[in-house]
Amino acid sequence: MAKLSVGSEFPKGVEFKYIPFTKEAAGITACGVPTTLDLDKELAGKKIVIVAVPGAFTPTCMINHIPPFGEKLDELKKKGVDDVIVISANDPYVLSAWGKALKLDHKLKFASDPNAAFSVANDLSLDGTALGLGIRTWRYLMIVDNGKISLLNIEPDPTKVTNTGVDAALAAL
């Protein structure tokens, strides 16, 4: 994969894993069945916000970063956003439970970047091995409009949300 930049095409062949929301598996302990989120199909003809976080259930991600995307989803949609995809290197079961815990599983797609492969390939990863966390996704925000990257904000400090929150996405739309 090529490194990502504003104005470039989103790489082809990217697949994340996620568990789609269903009423039958709405309980936080219901596992659901992981499936492939094919970004070639997901991005075609749509405006998608991709927000990456180092980890589900971590303080900054849980409190400051992701909940505002759910709170301001209507504003994003009014500006033409079709969907918001939250990615992390966590497995799809953890991400599904996190979406349920945040009560956002029916609003946003919580998808796994398995082994942070996409993030690593694009120099958007964080090595948390010394902390026992392994390789993670860095904190970043991307807007992809019909397959073309129109915004790519990367947090200078992945423990903070300065340019990757929902307000940054709204300002760029």
From TrEMBL:
Biological role stated in the UniProt entry: Thiol-specific peroxidase that catalyzes the reduction of hydrogen peroxide and organic hydroperoxides to water and alcohols, respectively. Plays a role in cell protection against oxidative stress by detoxifying peroxides.
Domain of life: Eukaryota
Keywords, in A-Z order: Antioxidant, Oxidoreductase, Peroxidase, Redox-active center
Pfam families recorded: Redoxin (PF08534)
InterPro entries given in the database record: PRX5-like, Redoxin, Thioredoxin-like_sf, Thioredoxin_domain
Protein name as annotated: Thioredoxin peroxidase
GO MF annotation: an example: thioredoxin peroxidase activity
Active site: C61
Gene3D superfamilies attached to this UniProt entry: Glutaredoxin (3.40.30.10)
Organism placement in taxonomy: Eukaryota, Fungi, Dikarya, Ascomycota, Saccharomycotina
GO biological process: cell redox homeostasis; cellular response to oxidative stress; hydrogen peroxide catabolic process
Any Gene Ontology CC annotation: mitochondrion
Segments forming domain Thioredoxin: 19-173
